[in-house]
Amino acid sequence: MEITLRSYQEEVVQAALKGENSIIWLPTGGGKTRAAVYVAKKHLETTRNAKVAVLVNKVHLVDQHFNNEFNPYLGKAYRVKAISGDSSDKDLFGRLVKDSDLIICTAQILENALNSSEEEKHVELTDFSLLIIDECHHTQKESVYNKIMGRYVEKKVRKERKLPQVLGLTASPGTGGNKTLAKAVEHVLQICANLDSVIVSTKNYASKLKEVVPRPRKQYDIVEKRALDPFGDHLKLMMSLIHEFMPSTVSRSLREVGTQDYEADVVELEKTGVKEENRLITQCALHLRQYNDALLIHDTVRMVDAFNVLDEFYNSRSNKLLDGTDFFLQGLFDENRVELKQLALDARYENPKLAQLQRTLLKEFKENKMSRGIIFSKTRRGTHCLYDWVNANHELQKVKISAGILTGTGTGVNHMNQNKQKNTIKDFRLGHLNLLISTSVAEEGLDIAECNLVVRYGLLTNEIAQQQASGRARALNSVYSVVAEEGGRELRREFTNEYLESLTSNAIDQVQSMSPREFRIKITELQQTAVLIRIEAERKKDARKRRYSPDQVHLQCRGCFVFVGLGEDIRKIENSHHVNINPEFQRHYRTGKQVFLEKTFEDWEPGQVINCRKCGKDWGMEIKFKKVAILPCLNIKSFSLDTPGGKFTHKQWKDVEFQVTEFDFIDYMSSRFPDLDLDD
Ligand SMILES: [Zn+2]
Are strands 589-594 and 604-612 parallel, antiparallel or unpaired? Predict the structure, then answer.
């Protein structure tokens, strides 16, 4: 198929066609991917031994780019291949790359292949002649994109040759959280340095671009705070009783309830409690976090949604009541449950934001029977609550609103699987659904039909997500509505983001107006700095990992502080799953429900969940390795580590300060069958 580009697309691909590394900056709906297909085509036609890698940051974008763009235009003349995380192809990545001209994969798959020592899997950056990086504003800090480009930059600084050309695509590089022009310029330069690229945008055809990508009409649907809030007040009263149960110095140190600050405070408080082995503190902190969650939900969706969060927490826990603290906390909820539920069902005090959302939806869907809308909400839970609300709302049902949920794909229970997500988008395109309720992360880069209504509902995001959301409203006369509370944080953030959006384009302007020499000097300096920082950080990380010897580290249950094992009992599988191989460990836990995972793994499958035998804390699950070895796989968040340097808690296993050895199947099995002399 022939590719015809619009005038502004022609303009922004010029640098890339000359072989320069460049970032294409075009708004959502401007046709970035098509421009990239064009560059890839010209590159394949004119370069000897050309090999192109298209990198995306989300699994579902692999198929989308393959089916909608790269394969239709290039599939006839070239060997185009899509490799997604679920396919077994990824295990032969190295060979696949040899046998194709263009591959599309997630950055993670390429990163794994760059790290792999197995010949079938391994590739080098220099095996490629062009790297196309989608949503390239993510190329910063610890992201996978930046790990890949970090290698690239290091090779460049070391003056290695034959590096591939780079083409980045973004709807906005953002300001990196900066609010001054000087800092925003630094941020844009850093992104340019990370991608070793200049940034290009249309200069001559800006008005044409505006025609193609019209901006929606923005409307602020602002509501007043509830005048009376008996349900919220009751939650706060219960929290104050928990505060009184704790030492007063502790309670006084916490910031205002119902805020993110408060959440941060109780998360820290729990850690302090673990270090001091003070169950009163840890348990109160954990429960207060649940109450605070309920308050935050109460602030966004229905009261009953907030009630359900607490009710689930108290009634589905496997935890045992060990001491007075547990009895107090469980008792407090049990005593108040009935009253709390009654208050939650009193429609007079329902969340005014929902009434406003209803008016906004009704207006569009009554006027235009063919309306299509997206509501963006903060959390996965939020999307589910709104979905329930839409379906239970007679007024919305009368105008035939049919909603679907769109959330990110992942491994958690609340995550969608890829097929479900695909079907939802398809149903929306075909009109079986006319309202999507989405988290703003899930939506990035997805090929969603044009909407005439985009609602940002009680949402806090950065300017990049805000711009991408606004880009969804592309139908004629479309409306972009912000539903928020008068004087609230969401509204302030919305205004800040508008300012940051214009700051971003000013910053880009300034970067583009630098002389090539000045730009090159700045970029080189940033790249050299980044390489030095990375080398030093690696060295420090290595030293940290060896701080304690594994036999000095004791594992304790985070719920009841019982000692359950040593660091030397831990082995890692596929560099991410951590199992305890000591047969003694079994007596510390009991097993529960069977775990089901969407994904399949090369060597193992999930078994049953495991809980602390003493306090019931959720520890992780058993896994079945090669169908025979049953091993407890532990979540580091459920434990604390007692070391010669004090007690520590970690979020991820990779942060622990001792070396964990790789799991060795033969070694493990032969220790169980000592009669077998396998060594000879
Ligand atoms: Zn325990």
Answer: antiparallel
